[in-house]
Amino acid sequence: MNKTIFVTGGAKRIGKAIIELFASDGWKVIIHYNNSKADAETLANSINSKKADKAFIVQGDLDKADEVNNIISKVNDFTDNVNLLINNASTFYPTPIDEISEDHWEKLIGSNLKGPLFLIQGLKEKLKKSNGSIINITDTNLTKGVANYSIYSAAKAGLEAITKGLARELAPEIKVNAIAPGAMLEPPDVTWTEEQKNRVIESIPLKRMGSEKDIANAVKFLAHSEYITGQIIKVDGGRSL
Ligand SMILES: NC(=O)c1ccc[n+]([C@@H]2O[C@H](COP(=O)([O-])OP(=O)(O)OC[C@H]3O[C@@H](n4cnc5c(N)ncnc54)[C@H](OP(=O)(O)O)[C@@H]3O)[C@@H](O)[C@H]2O)c1
User: Ramachandran region of residue 9, left (φ > 0), alpha (ψ -120 to 50) or beta?
Assistant: First the structure.
């Protein structure tokens, strides 16, 4: 039976790199997107042009409970088995304390914490049946505290807490881990100056920014690991040391 991976926010950037790596390894891939329909279709078409019926796309806003339910039922329609769920989608922007609104809370918690939790709940039986894995993508910076990012940090810290709690609760059938990236890509719609980039690189012991592939390779490592659960793997070039 073909193995199936489902990646949220899989149309671009890190999610896309995970999809491409697993598709090239012969997995069936389900690409979730919210706004990036054209990117999701292009990616799925390119995978399906090499082998038919390997890639599927599913749209939905993770902030909204009814859309999360719709994603779950579409995934259940596409496939009998889900071997790997990657909670990768994320909203990321600063929320200085005096500017925080309820809308910021809903958006940052919705995509980074609430959506992932309910996706796990909805796909749990399929993951159980296939002795599958869940990998939540968090952020290595949490441990240090990041000024102006309190909601995003709370959401990612919550996702790490869910990772550990569910690793116990869903064992022994399902493994649950997290990958905490460091500085991989500039935030979407932001271009750092050379000086900003160099400052970041200076703070990284391995002296380079990470890449999408570094995260995809870590996902592959965890996907093939039989005896790791409840762990947060930092893929950050040593920046958090
Ligand atoms: N990039 C880095 O250096 C870095 C550093 C630390 C941690 N991370 C973590 O690594 C993961 C991937 O990073 P990235 O930079 O590739 O992510 P990204 O580009 O910021 O976001 C990935 C996708 O998330 C989707 N998304 C956002 N809000 C959503 C919502 N409400 N509902 C559904 N989908 C939503 C978007 O899909 P659409 O485009 O389809 O709308 C977006 O393309 C994230 O979890 C991020 O927090 C990244």
Answer: left
167-209 pLDDT, tens digit each: 999 999 999 999 999 999 998 888 999 999 999 999 999 999 9
Residue 78 contacts by C-beta under 8 Å, 6 or more apart in sequence?
30, 56, 58
Q: What letter represents residue 71's amino acid?
A: I
CA of 89 to the centre of ligand 1 (A): 4
Query: Which pTM value belongs to this model?
Result: 0.98
What stretch of H or E contains 128? helix 115-129
Kindly report the CATH number that applies to the domain delimited by 4-235: 3.40.50.720
- Report the residue among 16, 20, 34 best suited for mutation to probe ligand 1: largest number of ligand atoms under 8 A from its CB: 34
* 158: Cβ contacts below 8 Å, ≥ 6 apart: 109, 112, 113
| CB 63, CB 55: distance < 8 Å | no
